[in-house]
């Protein structure tokens, strides 16, 4: 079994980074997808501690991470797992092959779904969504098990209430993922959605996802504890996948 956990670390302060590392160190998953890492001290602390522990880390270069240097890293904690083809595939995207399972770690470009985003932010998100869908199309053109995981900044189809400013391109991107044969692991297991991010007004949505193709999902769920403890504004999502 391979366990995967995806968590937006929310550009952490050093104090929040220490709390998030303590949380991660008590998890059993061998693969972490950590999004919204920046050039800041807290983000550097997270990656430095992971590397010092001997974990293998593939991260988007700071100069290719998009707005304000925000990016994503895939961390493999189990030294017995074979790791290949670790490389950034573009801004906010990293692909790593772990024991024959391709993992595409993602941090999607944001636009505020509750309050109207400015024109530049919305244009940036539209451009990123186009590039993201094209990258996933390339990934699905190759055979073998595939996981797309992270804070995609793409809402679940059930997320409607209070979300007045979700871009139509965002909803179309979700549809394209499913059309490419990717299964929304949480939705398939739980037959619906659950909030992983909450706006200061109390409106929320599920921005954090695990999509799979040709992978046997044994279990998948959401852990709200990082968000409820205010170490991040996101919950974590985890999945356990069978190994052939």
Automatic annotation (TrEMBL):
Organism of provenance: Mobilicoccus caccae
Protein name: Endonuclease/exonuclease/phosphatase domain-containing protein
Domain Endonuclease/exonuclease/phosphatase residue range list: 8-234
Transmembrane segments: none
Pfam annotation, one family: Exo_endo_phos
Entries under PANTHER family matching the protein: EXODEOXYRIBONUCLEASE III
């Amino acid at each position: 079994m391979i366990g995967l956990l995806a968590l937006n670390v929310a550009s952490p302060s050093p104090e929040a980074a220490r709390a998030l590392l303590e949380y991660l160190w008590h998890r059993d998953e061998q693969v972490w997808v950590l999004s919204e890492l920046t050039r800041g001290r807290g983000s550097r602390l997270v990656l430095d501690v992971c590397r010092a522990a001997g974990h293998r880390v593939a991260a988007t270069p700071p100069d290719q991470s998009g707005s304000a240097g925000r990016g994503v890293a895939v961390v493999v904690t189990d030294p017995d797992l074979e790791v290949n083809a670790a490389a950034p595939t573009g801004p906010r995207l990293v692909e790593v092959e772990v024991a024959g399972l391709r993992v595409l770690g993602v941090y999607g470009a944001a636009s505020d779904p509750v309050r109207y985003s400015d024109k530049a932010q919305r244009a940036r998100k539209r451009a990123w969504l186009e590039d993201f869908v094209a990258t996933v199309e390339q990934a699905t053109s190759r055979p073998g098990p595939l996981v797309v995981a992270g804070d995609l900044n793409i809402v679940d189809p059930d997320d409607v209430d209070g979300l007045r400013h979700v871009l139509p391109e965002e909803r179309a991107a979700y549809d394209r993922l499913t059309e490419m044969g990717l299964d929304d692991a949480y939705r398939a297991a739980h037959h619906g959605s659950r909030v992983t991010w909450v706006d200061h007004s109390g409106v929320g949505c599920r921005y954090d996802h695990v999509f799979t193709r040709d992978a046997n999902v044994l279990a998948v769920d959401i852990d709200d504890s990082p968000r409820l403890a205010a170490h991040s504004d996101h919950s974590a999502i985890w999945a356990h996948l069978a190994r052939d």
